[in-house]
Write a structure and sequence with these properties.
Blueprint (H helix, E strand, L loop, with lengths): L4 H19 L10 H10 L5 H10 L13 H5 L11 H44 L1
Helix pairs in contact: 1-2, 1-3, 2-3
């Protein structure tokens, strides 16, 4: 089993580098165009040259300038966790859900009443037809 471990580690690194290269935006790729990096990773993956070259030289590894999150929206909208029962937006959404559910329940009840009345009418018509 241990004799397969080096092969599995090489395969894992190869797959990781390939997926990382595909997911990296074009502006963060250094040195060569992204397509060339993909070809290098695929061609030289078994000997680890391609994946190691990508990890060392291919991608710009700087962190984001304004913080630790990748998108500007997250950097500008840092919020602390608020419990659901203290979160006004969550409570509003619950009220809206309740109103929607109540409206649906009223519609179902009205439909049920209509069907019951229709069944009663059919039964009465059936009885009157049997008597005549």
């Amino acid at each position: 089993m241990l004799r397969y471990l080096p092969f599995l580690l090489v395969l894992a690194l190869w797959i990781y580098a390939f997926i990382d290269c595909l997911n990296t935006p074009e502006e963060e790729v250094r040195g060569l165009p992204k397509v060339v990096w993909v070809i290098i990773i695929l061609l030289f993956g078994e000997v680890l040259v391609g994946p190691v070259a990508w990890l060392v030289a291919g991608r710009n590894r700087r962190g984001p300038a304004g913080g630790s999150t990748p998108s500007e929206w997250h950097r500008d909208h840092r919020t602390e966790f608020v419990a659901p029962d203290d979160n006004p937006e969550f409570l509003k959404s619950l009220k809206a859900e309740n109103r929607k559910d109540e409206a649906l329940l009223k519609d179902w009840e009205a439909d049920l009443r209509r069907r019951e009345e229709e069944l009663k009418r059919r039964e009465e018509q059936g009885r009157s037809d049997e008597e005549s």
